[in-house]
Amino acid sequence: MEEFKELENLWKQSETEVPAKNTDISKIKNNRMKLKNTYTKGAIILIVTGIGILILMTTFDAKIKTAPIISSMIIISITCFLQAGLMLFTAQKISNIDETQTPGMHLKQWQNFRLFQKKQRHWNMPVYYVLLSIALAVYMYELLKTVDLWKMILAFMVTYSWMLFAYFYLGKKEVKKQDAKLDGIIAELKSLENQFN
Amino acid sequence: MNQDFEQLYKEFSPRIYKLCLSYSGDRLFADDLHQETWIAVWNSLPKFRNESKIGTWIYRIAINTCLMGIKKQKNKADNSEAILSKLIHEESDDNSKEINRLYESISKLKENERIIITLVLEEKPYEEIAEITGITENNLRVKIHRIKKELQEIYLNHGRI
Asked: Count of domains in chain B?
């Protein structure tokens, strides 16, 4: 271990220049806070959008204030609020991660968060699509109820074909891509955690 | 709080910076990790409950910050060797080449090994290293023995001490 003493001596001699401290550290955000803020900002935008839709609804002329239009707008607002609630919940989860824990426990918390994100993506998309489809169906019916039946059917077919394509092809492809990315992150966190056992 | 923080920064930042540097082997990345650490310390300071030593607590934050910064580091891995040569100011020390080689050798170890060996080089007692890393003392002794050997090998493969 004599040689290691030499390394220890070298280490003691290694005076490095510490970067100057930022004068107002309280105003800078670290990566975890930036991630949390992304969710919080997204939630605020969705809440404002939901409220905006509801305000818009109250300004409608009595003639177009029909039950289907009102209900479709309410469904869209609810979708916005639900999504916002989920984003705030996610932001809270990030906030709860304790950076002062032992590395193993800290890494475990991030793993749990990533697993939550993965699960959430799986049920979030179907719920979003179902609510959107219902709102759209009601709205389109109200819009097209005076046209010929075949035109209405055609419009529905085109719209819903696109929605099904978006859900079953584009959406699933995206989920698969995101899953692979999250699986990679989870595996990396797991392998780091194992190093501390 | 500001005064407490200033004092902590003054006392611990050189050691924390060396930890970031030996972990990353990259001065630019170490600057980021160091800043991230102190932002986290600032934000967590009101929650500090004296359940452990403040030094232990700050080291844990620094280590967790380093570990979570792993992805960024991998992207920079390709050009890290070029940056490594600038780790230490050339004029600062006669041993600058050896010191650079030491940092470079540490950054070639596994992530947990880099952290453990840095704490050993900082002459932290085993008990405190165990508390910081959450690894049992017995397990730690075995690991430290192995890491020392590995570090020496890597270092010697770069030339003579």
From this structure: 1
